[in-house]
Write a structure and sequence with these properties.
By secondary structure, this protein is of the alpha/beta class. Helices cover 47% and strands 16% of the residues. The chain contains 18 helices and 16 strands.
Length: 421
Amino acid sequence: MKRTTLKALALSTALAGLMAVSAAAETNITFRFNDSEREELRAALDEFEAANPDIKVELETISWKDSRDQFLRESAVGQGPDVVHIAFVWTQEMAEAQAVLPIEELQDYGALPNSFDDFIATDLTAYEGQHWGLPWSADTWAMVMRTDVLEEAGVAAPTTWDELLTASRTIKETTGKTGFAFPAAHQVWFPVNYYLWSNGAEFISADGNGGYEIGVSQDQLAAAMGYFKTYIDEGLAPKSILSIDQPHDPALMQALLDGDQAFAAMPTNTYRQLLGAYEEANPGQPVPFRSTVMMAGDSAPLTHLGGRTLVVNSNTDEPEAAWKLVQFLASAPLFEKYYTNQFPAQKTLLSQIEYRKEELGFAKQLADHTRTWGAYAESGVGVGPLWNVTSRAFGTALSGQSSLDQAAADLLGEIDRMLDH
């Protein structure tokens, strides 16, 4: 009896040891994701885990407006997710804060399929002779129009900001519908910049002497605020847009789907979601949407060359597993099966894209009418901080809390302070 008990004890101890070894062999990492395709990315991560049974990935999601500041706070105290999804233009800031690991070091764990040189916008990931993130997806914004609403109102497709306002007024008068509506909270940053760029202004410019200066006058800035405020003041767009933060907000998307709104500005992934939602709700019906390049002003229409970057937290305990996940996320099957609303930030994969006719405006915008954030990042001010102060200033102006001149003057004062003049 005693001998049996000892054998049982020995067997139990051995099994416990094996379980401990098994548990220790399992690597747990976290991936933080900012876009809306949570279900699709979870399915992709399930495929990754099946191919790598020793690695388990927790998927965290966070809004874009909180993502940058949250990760910088976490990394400063040795915390945060292992792999992080950020904007192109945040990478240098993350590197300067020592929050991320260099790609050159990570590639010791395994090479990329088409080499790092196959990725676009790698200059935005460079800092002090190394690269600190892997460009993941590329995108830009363009205009989207509901063609049947234009036909109902007898309106031609506008090509300038002034024509867009005139068309919106006509649509309201003849149909009672909304012409142009836009996210007027945090992401008002995007249409505001497009408006300024197309009118020869920008928040920060190179001064020609190796430094940087404010590139917009108070009058120009007040005029931009006044342009977007007109849509609210005249009832051309609902006042509820003041609290709308994202172009994919259900209120904006539903108005377009229902044919109650004619125009919107949005990024590529939002437009693809819109097309998919319409086709799901109206199987076999012609799609009443078309895309065009952004509106022009005194000069050509311009939007930003945007995109997403994958970075590995410098505080990770599992850099090899984290890099293996990054390699998977950058692979062609991910874009073909899961992240289908995005364009891959790789020359080889971009060359294989077949655009549907409704997407040709985005293709032309991306090819011929984009620019980088340029001096915004190069000046040391940073896109994130500039974005935050701009959104707040436009919020006070559009809501009527401040006069246009006062809001413009306050914003210019903030930018001047950020430039340390």
